[in-house]
Amino acid sequence: RYVRHVVGDNRRVEQVIALLDAGDVRAAGPVLNEGHVSLRDDLRVSCPELDLVVEAANAAGALGARMTGGGFGGSAVVLVEETAAGTVAKAVSEAFAAAGHAAPGIFDAVPSAGARRLR
């Protein structure tokens, strides 16, 4: 199952890059969801709180979501259309409150080209 995750995640990264290069942001969402399922079930590095983020975000209209970082807690990246960001953030916060968890830290991030040489 570890190899399945690594090979599958490499494929998913290539797939998301191709989708984003083609401008098909919506199609990248389900690929993020597949990645989270693999992190949870194959690599077994997710946790109930991160699973709750992914579930609540997707139920509220996110395009997709997955755990990111080292595992066993930490962060999730949630892909949303700009108009849905507030609704999704509220749903995640409410899901955490209903489960008795501390309020999650949520912040908006806008993708960019990343680091590059300017000269």
Please describe the topology of this protein.
Layout: H1 2-21, H2 25-41, H3 48-59, E1 64-68, E2 75-79, H4 85-98
Antiparallel strand pairs: 1-2
Tally of strands: 2
CATH class: Alpha Beta
Order of helices and strands: HHHEEH
How is the main sheet built?
A: 2 strands, antiparallel
Radius of gyration: 15 Å
Task: Give the count of helical stretches.
Answer: 4
Q: Roughly what is the average pLDDT, rounded to an integer? A: 94
Structural class category:
mainly alpha
Strand arrangement, major sheet: 1-2
End-to-end gap: 44 Å
Low-pLDDT residue spans = none
The quaternary organization reads as single chain
> Judging from the principal axes of the Cα atoms, what is the shape?
globular
Helix content: 40-55%
- β-strand percent reads 5-15%
Identify the notable features of this structure and list them briefly:
119 residues, mainly alpha, Alpha-Beta Plaits, two-stranded antiparallel sheet, 2 strands
What can you tell me about this protein's structure?
By secondary structure, the protein is mostly helical. It has a single domain, classed as GHMP kinase, C-terminal domain (Alpha-Beta Plaits), CATH 3.30.70. It has four helices and two strands. A two-stranded antiparallel sheet has the order 1-2. Strand 1 and strand 2 form a beta hairpin. The mean pLDDT is 94.
